[in-house]
Design brief:
alpha/beta, 5-stranded mixed β-barrel, globular
Length: about 220
């Protein structure tokens, strides 16, 4: 049975793949529900689905770091994900990747998809000054130029994550309002960690998350 919460108090769940990404927020907000889902789509799907069957939530916020395809987006800064997709469900032949939506095996407008995308219509996109971006979710991060080129050609995304589309998929299916916040730690394909801004991204992520919660 799902839990009950007090009338007029918004019940919020903060989800992240790792505790390290939102440790400061957790320490500062001990009374807010937090779910550490683990890395990747399967773990995220399982843990979020399990939690929402235990508790009713008015809003789920997924927070984490991400890689950027878009060189116009500055590393360290936070963004809001407007639409996401599963970037590795398809067919690869002769180094060419084709999404199942493009093959016709899956209807690109079958709910919860809109033209192959999992689109968030939350009103926050009309209020926030953060950049609104397109994301692609994959289960493998890589320095492969081929993989990067395939993803860019198939989806033209701004950023890459390993869990975002799972959140969008579940929340759209279950009609739960949601927000995906990411802070950019690196450019996709760059494996030289000295060029990453992971700590700056985590700091800005936690600051942005705290401001958002304060405004709700």
């Amino acid at each position: 049975m799902k839990g009950k919460h007090e009338i007029c108090i918004m019940q919020i769940l903060i989800a992240a793949s790792t505790k390290a990404e939102i440790q400061h927020f957790i320490t500062s907000n001990p009374n807010i529900d937090v779910l550490i889902t683990g890395i990747g789509v399967p773990s995220t799907l399982f843990h979020i689905q399990k939690r929402i069957h235990q508790m009713d939530y008015d809003l789920i916020i997924q927070a984490g770091i991400a890689g950027s395809f878009n060189l116009d987006l500055e590393l360290g800064n936070p963004v809001l994900v407007k639409q996401d997709c599963f970037g590795d469900i398809g067919i690869e032949e002769k180094e060419i990747f084709t999404s199942f939506f493009e093959t016709g095996f899956i209807d690109k407008n079958e709910f919860p998809f809109t033209n192959g995308w999992l689109v968030n219509e939350n009103e926050i996109f009309n209020q926030s000054i953060l950049p609104s971006v397109k994301a692609v979710t994959v289960n493998k991060v890589s320095d492969s130029n081929l993989q990067t080129q395939q993803l860019v050609k198939a989806f033209n995304p701004d950023i890459e994550t390993m869990e975002g589309a799972a959140l969008h998929y579940i929340c759209l299916q279950e009609s739960i309002p949601f927000i995906q916040i990411r802070a950019l730690s690196n450019y996709v394909g760059e494996r030289d960690k000295t060029k990453w801004k992971t700590m700056e991204a985590i700091e800005n992520l936690n600051t942005t998350l705290q401001k958002l919660i304060s405004q709700l």
